[in-house]
Amino acid sequence: MFDVFKAMLDGVPWTIAVTLLSFTIGCLLGFPICWARMSKFRMVSFTTASLVLIIRSIPPIVWLFFVFFGVGGGFLNLSPFAAAITGLGIITAAQMSEVYRGALSAVSVGQYEAAHVLNLNARQRFVDIILPQMLRIVVPSAATYAISLLKDSAVASTIGVTDISAVAYQVTQQTFKGIEVYTTAALLYLLLSVPIALFSRWLGATLNTRISR
Amino acid sequence: MIDLLGMWWEWFPDLLQGFVLSLQVTGVCLLLGIPLGLVFALGVSAPNKAVRLMFLFVVELGRGAPALILLQYFYYGLPSAGITLSSFTAAALALACCTGAYTSEIIRGGLEAVASGQREAADVIGLTKLDALRFIIVPQALRIAVPSLLGFSIIMFQASSLCFTIALPELVSRASAIGSNTFQYMPVLALAGIMYAVVCIPATIIVTSLEKKLGASGQT
Fold it and tell me: What is the distance between the alpha carbons of residues A57 and B16, in angstroms, rounded to a whole number?
C-alpha cells in the first residue's frame, strides 16, 4: 500500500502545475472577455456571448485534443503540458468571464454613480472603487470553480501529461492493484482541494474585514 | 471548403453512432443516478447521526474525486477484485455514482426549500413519515430542483466524453480514431465539437430561461 502511495506522489506536482497555470491564465483572460461581453456595441457583446456559450458547450477533452493534435500537430509544436494549460485556460477564461460579469452586476449602481460624481477617472473608478468590491464577490465562486478545475485537470492525462490520473493508470497496469491505486488517487484529489477551500475562506475573510473597517 | 464538407459527409455516419452511444450512456447514468441522488439526499438529512455521516462521506468522496478517476476505478480497478465490467456498464455505473453524489446536493437544496408548513400539515392530517415524504415533500422538492437537474444533465452529457479513456466507442473515441487514421485531426474534432454544441447550446439556453421563469414565479 505504501509503495503504491509513494509512486502516486510523482503525479501530484503535475496536477498542481496544470491546475494553477490554467487557472491563472483563465483569471487574467477572463477580464478582457468580460469587458467585451459587457460592451455597449451589441455586435461585440453578442459575438462574445456566443463564443463563451460555444466554449462552454464543448467538453474539455475535445478542446485538449483540438489544441494538442489539431493545432499542435499541424502548425505549432506543442508539448502535452503546454496544450493542456492552453485548452483548460481557454475554458477557464470563458467560465471566469461569467463569474466576473455576475460580480460586476452585484456591485450596487450607487457605487458607480458616486465614483462619477467624485470626478474620478475611468481607471480610478475601476481599480479603486469597483474592483475591490467585485473581488470580494468573486472569491467564493472562483474557489468553487478552481476545485472543479482541479478535477477537470485529470483530462490532461489523456494527451500524455503525467499527472495523478496518468500515474494511477501506469501503476495499475504494473501492479494490478487497481482498487488501492484508484482509491489513493481519489483521496489525493480530495486532499488537494482542501487547501483551495481553506485559502478561499481566508481570502474572503481578509477582503471582508478590509471593507468593513 | 468543399473538401471539408466532403470529409464531414464521409465521417458523419460513424460519428453519429458514437453520438448516439454518448446519449445512451448519459441517459442510463441519469436514470440510475438521479434516484440515487434522492436516496443520498434523504440519507444526508437523516435523523440518525451515524447514517448521516456515512452518507456525507460517500457524497463528499463522489464529489471530490474526478469523474475520470471514478470511470477508471470501475473499469481498471474493479477487475483486481474479480469484477470485470464491459466498458458500457462501467461507464454507466461510474457516471451514475458521480450523478448521485452531485444531484444529492441539488435535491437536498430542493428538500430544504419546501416550506416547513407542508411538513407540519402532513403531520397534522395524520400521514406517516414515509407517506408525507412520498406524496407531499419529495414531489415539491423535485419540482424546485428541475432546472438545476437539467443543467447538471448537460454537464453529464459533456462528461460522457471521458468514457474515451475506458475504450467505449463514443463520440470522442470515434473522432480520435478517425483522426489517427487520416491525420485530419482538426476537421474531425471540429465536427465532434459541433455535434456536442448542437445539443448543449439550445439546452443551455432553455435551462437558463427556465431558471429565470421559475425564479420569477417562485417569489410570488
Answer: 18
- What domains can you pick out in chain A, each with its CATH number? 2-212 (1.10.3720.10)
Which chain A residues in 41-70 lie under 8 Å from chain B, judged by CB atoms? 53-54, 56-63, 65-66, 69-70
Give me the phi and psi of A200, to 5 degrees please.
Answer: -65, -35
For residue B155, the tally of other CB atoms under 10 A from its CB is: 17
Q: Across residues B26-47, what is the average pLDDT?
A: 93
What residue has cell string 456571448? A49
Q: B32: which 3 cell numbers?
A: 440510475
Q: Where are the alpha helices (DSSP H) in B125-170?
A: 129-131, 138-159
Residue B119, classified by CB atoms within 10 Å of its CB into exposed (0-12), middle (13-18) or buried (19+), is middle
pLDDT at A192: 92
Residues in chain A, pLDDT under 50? none
pTM for this model (two decimals): 0.88
Decide if A181 touches B, using CB distance below 8 A: yes
Number of CB atoms found within 10 A of residue A45's CB: 15
> Closest partner residue to A182 among B73, B158, B193, by Cβ?
B73
Indicate the pLDDT class of residue B219, thresholds 50, 70 and 90: very low
Confirm if A165 and B72 have CB atoms less than 8 A apart.
Answer: yes
- ∠ CA B80-B85-B88, rounded to 5°: 140
CATH, domain range B2-218: 1.10.3720.10
In whole angstroms, what separates CA B69 from the centre of its chain?
Answer: 16
Q: For residue B67, give the amino acid letter.
A: A
For range B179-195, the mean pLDDT = 91
Instruction: Mark out the alpha helices in B45-170 (DSSP H runs).
Output: 49-64, 67-72, 87-113, 116-124, 129-131, 138-159
Sketch the domain layout of chain B as residue ranges.
Answer: 2-218
